[in-house]
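Lecture notes, part 5. Sequence design as translation. It can be helpful to think of inverse folding as translation between two languages: the language of shapes and the language of residues. The source text, in structure tokens, appears below.
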């Protein structure tokens, strides 16, 4: 089956508010109301893959002796507009504002994501570990 390739955004314009390691709430579709951790962010497509959600079952035919047949489960990408970020501070699904705050050991102003509900900095789990 041929899949039409969508035109991708140039990398410097591809910025998403949701990053790998974030917890998101799914707001549409069959997984609506469920939460999961972003295992992959795809900023050029505005999509994320959320662990264990938006699972599609694929039937695979055996191919010779190298591949067994059967059903495999695969997490499909979800458009970011169908998700909401869960704030690491207040635990609420929220929208994100951008700000600059003194961060790190040198307290330099760095761009951060801020929760629009509690106005605290949303932790970037991939960066701060
Ligand atoms: Zn918050």
């Amino acid at each position: 089956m041929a899949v039409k390739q969508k035109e991708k955004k140039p990398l410097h314009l591809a910025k998403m508010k949701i990053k790998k390691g974030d917890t998101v709430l799914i707001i549409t579709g069959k997984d609506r109301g469920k939460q999961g951790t972003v295992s992959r962010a795809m900023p050029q497509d505005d999509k994320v893959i959320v662990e264990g959600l938006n699972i599609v079952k694929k039937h695979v035919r055996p191919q010779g002796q190298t591949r067994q047949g059967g059903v495999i489960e695969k997490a499909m990408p979800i458009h970011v507009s169908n998700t909401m970020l869960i704030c690491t501070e207040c635990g609420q699904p929220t929208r994100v504002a951008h700000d600059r705050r003194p961060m790190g050991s040198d307290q330099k102003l760095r761009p951060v994501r801020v929760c629009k509900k509690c106005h605290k900095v949303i932790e970037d789990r991939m960066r701060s570990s």
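The translated text above is only one of many valid answers, since several sequences can fold into similar shapes. The CA atoms of residues 12 and 59 lie 37 Å apart.
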